[in-house]
């Protein structure tokens, strides 16, 4: 990857309308869910749909889109690779190749000109400037961001037929992201009300958290937290987000060792995605799992602080 800033073409209006819908709709779903639970406790089916799909789609992003596809931190057997890419697509954060391109660009220009979602670059150090930076890194960048040259940042992925096919089917995954909780809610409760509340909890509320937790890694994990290593960017480790982010909030570690399949380093840094990858490695479902050696970690650790 080269280090000069990419060309940024003019923003597409349709893309922005889609972004508005997909950012506002889950929020409305959350409001509906809160209103409903005011009168009646949340049902077990809805809760299970929310949690189950949150974890499946979350791992789709963290293990599938991020560690496997974008950083090639391990290789998975074909059915698992396909399942991970579909699970990531169901989180509606963009088609697999687009997500990988954005994220590779983030690593190539971290907190510098060309980074699609830095909370620092281009913002003043005043309180207002910092808030603007956080807002931009969290969600604002989705609106003023344009797809960067795929040939340049995803040449390897464009040659992978499975990745290309699953990326092209993105509209289908969007539809299924809502249809699956609707159908499951209806089938389990055998009522239309169950289908509707399944859609709200397993679809919209789940998406709200899938989105905002991922976006928090981009915003909060470049501002608040510890920085135990020497790094060329402002990334941080944030333990508060470690569990909901399924291990991605050890983001400073990740910037220092981007190709590592494990973001938590040591047992105190719980990394659920890393635990799952290690289990799959034992079962022979993934191979060539990359991890930094103790010597590499020691070399990067600054004298200043421990994680
Ligand atoms: Zn980052
Ligand atoms: Zn990354």
Task: Give an account of the 3D structure.
With 307 residues, the chain is mostly helical. It has one domain (13-230). It has 13 helices and two strands. Strands 1-2 form a two-stranded antiparallel sheet. Helix 2 (44-70) crosses helix 3 (78-89). The longest helix has 28 residues, at 192-219. The two termini are 29 Å apart. Mean pLDDT is 91; it is low at 1-11 and 303-307. Residues 106, 110, 222, 235, 251, 255 line the site of one zinc ion.
Rounded mean pLDDT is 91
The set of bound ligands, ions and cofactors reads: zinc ion
Biggest sheet: strands, sense, closure?
2 strands, antiparallel
Radius of gyration: 19 Å
Structural class category? mainly alpha
Q: What's the number of domains?
A: 1
Reading the helices and strands in chain order gives HHEHHHHHHHHHHEH
Q: Kindly, what is the distance between the CA atoms of the first and last residues, rounded to a whole number of angstroms?
A: 29 Å
- Order of the strands making up the biggest sheet: 1-2
Shape: globular
Sequence stretches where pLDDT stays below 50 over 5 or more residues: 1-11, 303-307
Number of strands: 2
Given the structure, what is the number of helices? 13
Bin the strand percentage: under 5%
Indicate the percent of residues in helices. Answer: 55-70%
């Amino acid at each position: 990857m080269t280090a000069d800033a990419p060309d940024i073409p003019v923003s597409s209006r349709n893309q922005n309308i889609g972004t508005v819908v997909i950012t506002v709709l889950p929020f409305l779903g959350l409001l509906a869910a809160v209103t409903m639970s005011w009168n009646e406790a949340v049902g077990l089916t809805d809760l299970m749909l929310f949690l189950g799909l949150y974890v499946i789609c979350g791992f789709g992003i963290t293990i599938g889109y991020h560690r496997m596809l974008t950083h090639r931190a391990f290789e998975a057997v074909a059915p698992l690779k396909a399942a991970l890419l579909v699970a990531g697509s169901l989180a509606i954060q963009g088609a697999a190749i687009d997500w990988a391109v954005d994220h590779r660009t983030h690593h190539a220009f971290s907190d510098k000109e060309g980074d699609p979602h830095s909370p620092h670059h281009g913002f003043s150090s005043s309180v207002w400037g910092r808030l603007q930076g956080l807002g931009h890194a969290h969600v604002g960048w989705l609106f003023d961001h344009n797809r960067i040259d795929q040939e340049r940042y995803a040449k390897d992925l464009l040659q992978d037929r499975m990745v290309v096919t699953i990326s092209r089917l993105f509209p289908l995954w969007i539809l299924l992201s809502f249809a699956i909780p609707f159908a499951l809610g209806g089938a389990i409760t055998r009522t239309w009300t169950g289908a509707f509340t399944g859609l709200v909890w397993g679809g919209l509320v789940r998406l709200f958290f899938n989105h905002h937790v991922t976006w928090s890694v981009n915003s909060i994990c470049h501002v608040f937290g510890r920085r135990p290593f020497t790094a060329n960017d402002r990334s941080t480790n944030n333990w508060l987000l470690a569990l909901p982010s399924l291990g991605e909030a050890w983001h400073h570690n990740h910037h220092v060792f981007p190709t590592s399949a494990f973001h938590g380093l040591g047992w105190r840094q719980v990394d659920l995605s890393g635990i799952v990858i290690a289990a799959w490695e034992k079962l022979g479902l993934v191979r060539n799992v990359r991890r930094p050696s103790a010597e590499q970690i020691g070399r990067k650790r600054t004298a200043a602080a421990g994680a």
